[in-house]
Every structure is written in structure tokens, then in C-alpha cells.
Write a structure and sequence with these properties.
Length: 246
């Protein structure tokens, strides 16, 4: 803004007027505007504009703006900056020597610029709003994915509950079947043991009776043999006596 000084021809007014005019001209003389064009295979969606904005803020620059553009299918970042000579020089050196992570830069050009440049804080606020707008669909997608994951989780829990119920039912049925089989097996074994025991007892009884008969017959045979033996011995003794004259 140019300050208005009265036309009173007094030394003090003339001195003040000269100071303001010289200050304005000096300030304008040290301000310059620069157009930066960055081209490459990947200069969009790698934080290039924020990268440049951060440096401009660090340098105390008041005017700055940056935009993503395309040229014949190629990616371009246009940046516009206004500042003191030393600020512009340091900013230019920074752009020449530094790159955002993942950026692929093939060419950088610098040109003087005569157009209007946005206030840097307005651009920062606008960039923040743009980033928020970009993030909203992503947040909505994340929320949808979370809802889908929760639905799938509920379905999995329902399946697990159903599977657990089926397993418990199968285990219960298997337990009952095994219990019944064991009971039937025990009954069959008990019956077999009982039948075997009765058979053995019967066989022992028959065997005992047969053994008693055999013993009785043996006794009769022994008695007959002994009686026959004794009879022959008595005959032999009588013959011996007869021969010797007794």
C-alpha cells in the first residue's frame, strides 16, 4: 500500500515522505517471482507440493502456490513463489538438490513470473482441505471394510457356534453308541464266561464220575490180581512142602 503524505512543504513532511517512498521502492526492488516446473515419471501423489510448501514456510516466504498438471500424458508440478532474492535463491537450490521420497524427476526449469501468486497460508489451508477431501473417501472405504469384516466375523462366529454344537452332538451320540457297545460287549462276555463256566463244571463233573468209575474198576482189578497171585503162591508153597516131606 502507498502511504499518502500531505503536500505541505515543510522539511519534516518531505523527510517522512522520502522515507516511505524509499522503503516501498526498496521493498519492491528486492521482491521477485519465480515459476518452477518439475517433470518426471512420478511427481504426483508423492507429496511433492507439500514438500515444496514446507520448504517455503521454513524460508518465511509469504506468497506460494503449487499445482499438479499433465502434459501429453506426463506428470508436471507447477510451483509459483514470491520472495526476497536470497529466499528465492535458497528455494531454487533446494528444489535442484532434493526430491520427495519415491519421486521420479526428469527435468526442472525455472522462469520469471509476472502473474498473481496466492498467499502461502491460504494455499496451506487449501491444501489441507484438499488432503482432507481426498481422505474422506478412503475413510469411508475403511469404515465399509470394517463393517464387512465385522459381518464376516459374525458369520464366522455363527459358523463356529454351529460347528461346536454339531461336534458336541456328534460326541454325545458317539458316547452313547460307545456306552451301548460296551454294555452289549460286557453282557456278551458275561454270557460267554457263564456258558464256559457251566461247560467246564459239567465236564469236570463228568470227568470226576468217570475217574471214580475207573478207580473202582482199578480196585476190583487189583483185588482180583492179588487174590490170584496169593492163590498161586499158596499152591507153590504146598508143592514145596510136599517135596520136602513136611
Amino acid at each position: 500500500m502507498r502511504f499518502s503524505i500531505t503536500d505541505r512543504a515543510d522539511p519534516l513532511s518531505e523527510a517522512v515522505r522520502a522515507i516511505f517512498i524509499n522503503t516501498e521502492e526498496t521493498t519492491c526492488a528486492h521482491k521477485m517471482r519465480l515459476r518452477v516446473e518439475i517433470r518426471g515419471g512420478k511427481v504426483h501423489d508423492v507429496g511433492c507440493r507439500v514438500f515444496l510448501l514446507d520448504k517455503a514456510l521454513g524460508l518465511g516466504i509469504d506468497k506460494f502456490a503449487a499445482y499438479n498438471r499433465t502434459d501429453n500424458g506426463g506428470q508436471v508440478v507447477l510451483a509459483f513463489i514470491e520472495g526476497e532474492d536470497d529466499q528465492i535463491a535458497e528455494f531454487r537450490e533446494f528444489v535442484e538438490r532434493n526430491r520427495p521420497v519415491d519421486a521420479e524427476v526428469s527435468d526442472i526449469t525455472f522462469d520469471e513470473y509476472e502473474g498473481r501468486i496466492m498467499d502461502i497460508m491460504d494455499f496451506a489451508n487449501r491444501t489441507q482441505i484438499q488432503q482432507i477431501n481426498k481422505g474422506i473417501p478412503a475413510l469411508l472405504r475403511i469404515e465399509q471394510l470394517q463393517d464387512q469384516m465385522l459381518d464376516k466375523q459374525d458369520q464366522m462366529l455363527d459358523k463356529l457356534d454351529k460347528t461346536r454344537e454339531d461336534i458336541v452332538g456328534e460326541i454325545r451320540e458317539s458316547k452313547e453308541c460307545i456306552t451301548n457297545e460296551i454294555r452289549e460287549s460286557n453282557e456278551a462276555i458275561t454270557n460267554e464266561i457263564k456258558e464256559s463256566t457251566e461247560t467246564i463244571v459239567g465236564e469236570l463233573k463228568v470227568g470226576r464220575e468217570e475217574s471214580a468209575g475207573d478207580i473202582k474198576d482199578l480196585r476190583v482189578d487189583i483185588r482180583s490180581y492179588m487174590e490170584e497171585k496169593i492163590g498161586r503162591m499158596e499152591d507153590d508153597i504146598a508143592q514145596i512142602k510136599a517135596k520136602i516131606g513136611i
